[in-house]
Amino acid sequence: MFRRFLTIFLGAALLAAFQRPSAAASLDQLSKDVETLKKENEDLKERVKTIEVKDEEDSYSEKKRVNISGYADVEYDYSSVSSNPDHFRVRHLSLFFSQDVQKQWKLFSELEFEDAPLYNSTTTQGQILLEQMYIQYKPSAEFEVSAGRVLTPAGLWLIYHYPPYVETQQRPLHIRKIFPQYSDGLEVRRSFALGQSMLDVQAYVTNGTGNPGVNDADSTKGIGVRLNLSADLQKGKLEVGASYLSPDDTTHIYQNSYGLHLKATSGPLRLQSEYAARQSMNPNFANAYWDTGFYVQGAFDIKKWTLVARWDQYNGDGIYNGDGTLNLTNPVISDHRVYTAAVNYHLFHNVLTRFELHRHEFANPSQPNYYLGIASVILSLGDL
Amino acid sequence: MTRGLTRLLTAAILLMAVATPAPAGDAIAIIVNEKNPVSSITNLDLRRVYDDRMLRWEDRIPIIVYDLAVNNPVRESFYQAVFGAPAEKMAETWAHLKITNQAKNPPLTVKNEYQIMRMVATEEGAIGYVSLSSAKSGEIHGLKVISIVQP
Questions:
Q1: Can you give the residue range of the structural domain that contains B58?
Q2: Fewest CB within 10 A of the end CB: N or C in chain B?
Q3: Quick check: A237 and B51 CB within 8 A?
Q4: Mind telling me how many Å the CA of B141 is from chain A's nearest CA?
Q5: Can you give the pTM of this predicted structure?
Q6: What domains can you pick out in chain A, each with its CATH number?
Q7: What is the layout of strands, in order, in the sheet containing B108-110?
């Protein structure tokens, strides 16, 4: 009995003796592993901190930097009119420069080169245009004041007209005719929350049509306003609005421009329509006229494709009699209609190809109807 | 000892989780500053916030909107879930608003989820979105989740 007990005791003692160094080794190894992990953890924390500091430095330098972006587009235009031969067109190179000079102050400008400008002693082609240049004070998201040259706040296409983001190269007929492309002056925007909707009011005072800068020869100024109400729509939004501008130009032809617009977006479908009218007259009603424009456009996105159809009309036929009434006996000679079909394909988020076909029809029999096809490639530059 | 090791490993994994983009398909957490009295947000209001149509919280504090870089998979999931549109499309919309002087409250784009969480934790009116796993990491304090969007 004693021998058996002794054997068990010795066996246990030997087992313990052999096991002890092994457990100690495991413990050492574990401690080493923990140390390694601690170090790795510290390194990771350090790395995150470094990235964080670098990111902050980057954002700070980005804020200080002048942001340059822009777009470029090149076209091939085909026309069924022999007087307008097919041609390549270096359409635009536009550069935007912007900087937040202070927290609430910003400078924005757009320099546009259209149709590869060339000015020398023998040739004048294309144009170089300062399309926008304003200094903006924006104390809050709801309120801002811009002084300088702004896109005339009227309708939709006149504002949202940049080739990378519109559906066709050719704009609707009345755009830039009834309201001017840009306005030199002072613009104030105030936005109001109306329940679940948002009302934007843009009011501005401007030199007037065709009178930029120091060429403004009269003391009266045009006054304009644009209202835009945006509301929820199933899977999208609805925007409706109205615009008005009363410019006074140097020839004392008083023009009042009016506009209505609507845009509905629901999932992949977009519907956009505008109506605009201009009453242009002088005290004797000589050369006075009334012109109107209307278009309706539908667009549908299918993955990288956008299909577009548009019906567009411009009437410039409302001639006034000497007593201020409209002369309805004159034949309608300047009605112009355009039927458009277009396909956009987004190769990448900043590369777009587009093909559009326009059928131009005229009420004036001496003006032949024709087809215009435009194939284009459009690139967005930088971080727009 | 084992508990310490586990804690250490967890911390390391969480740290890596917030420093790298979460895989697409992960649920998305809508986060605001913990001082913001808002406790939830509907998808419709979320759309308004990211679509320039809701500029202030109910208590009139201005909303500061944060967004991820356009190529971030979490951003893609967010815009697909909330707008039913690709992130690129929304980026185009914002680009057009900005260059035409029509943007009221454009989102501020930051490089990663960690930065969004840091900015939201420091600015009272801020809102952002990150993957749920990043939001739950607990790495950044001062945040609260007000909605979870399923991609």
A1: 2-149
A2: N
A3: yes
A4: 16
A5: 0.82
A6: 67-381 (2.40.160.10)
A7: B108-110, B64-68, B126-131, B28-33, B143-149
